[in-house]
Amino acid sequence: MGSERREQMRALGARLRGLRAEAGLTGAVLAQRAGVGQPTVSKVETGRMVPSVDVLDRLSRALGLDELTVREVRELLDAVMAAPGTDQSADNIPPAAGSTVDEEVRSTQLVRSFQCVVLPALLQTAEYARHVFVSAPKSTPDAVGRAVAARIERQSVLYEPGRESVFVLTEAVLRTWPGSPALMLAQLDRLLAVESLSTVRLGVIPWRQPVPVLPRHGFTLCDRRAVVVEAFDSERVSADSAELAAFEETFARFEGAAVFGDEVRELLLRVMSDFRSLGDLLTR
């Protein structure tokens, strides 16, 4: 990354940090008001991340900035984007699916995630996560290694008292596999371990059960303040009340179609048996 671009990022971050201090807000409070993860606020303020226009607008609204100051920070962002040296830093490599969720869940007490293709970020093993990040555009081995380590570290929220995580998957998620059958056996074993936690509810919609809504993408509800909507190559965070209500209703319908407890453990064991058979077949 060029030195001029880096300096512009630092200038934008310093200005936002100063405005937050003037408003008497902590980074955690600002993140909650803006509907973003606290790590996002930290990275922007320290010049390690270029915020999207949407994130900058939400930070500006949460800070209660007047029109003149909003224009000022927008101009600072424009200066970053116009600065020479557009190579992205390791922290700014376009994210693979789940990166935004990683940041959002840090300040979330209730996580509700529905997935129809890729396992939720909080449930991935290191090897599964590596395949997710390798698929990101412009990924590098060093960046992938750091991203995997950060993802595994953030999974500690699953074990924190006072938090609740509810995951609903289609059976297709369990049978869509990267790497090898051995990778998926380790991944499914991880799901069995996590399912036993008192802070986690894991549900699966079996293939024999019709889905109540045709799923087109995954999404994660963070408390009742934001939803992370996942597309093939990007993610967006929405705090719009009408959109939140629609996703909460949709999640409830998927949750109602899923099996939990003993039934989901039996299903996981059946899928594991299928992967063992597949592994034996591939090694013959």
According to CATH, what is the topology of the largest domain? Endonuclease, Chain A
Strand order of the largest sheet: 3-2-1-4-5-6
**Which band does the percent of strand residues land in?**
5-15%
**Residue-averaged pLDDT, rounded?**
87
Q: What is the total tally of β strands?
A: 6
Describe the structure.
- There is one protein chain.
- The chain has twelve helices and six strands.
- With 284 residues, the chain is α/β, with parallel strands linked by helices.
- It folds into two domains: 80 residues, lambda repressor-like DNA-binding domains (434 Repressor (Amino-terminal Domain), Orthogonal Bundle), CATH 1.10.260.40; 150 residues, Endonuclease Chain A (Endonuclease, Chain A, 2-Layer Sandwich).
- It has a six-stranded mixed beta sheet with strand order 3-2-1-4-5-6, sandwiched between helices.
- Strand 4 and strand 5 form a beta hairpin.
- Helix 2 packs across helix 3, helix 4 packs antiparallel against helix 5 and helix 7 crosses helix 8.
- The longest helix has 22 residues.
- The chain starts with a helix and ends with a helix.
- About 4% of the residues have low confidence.
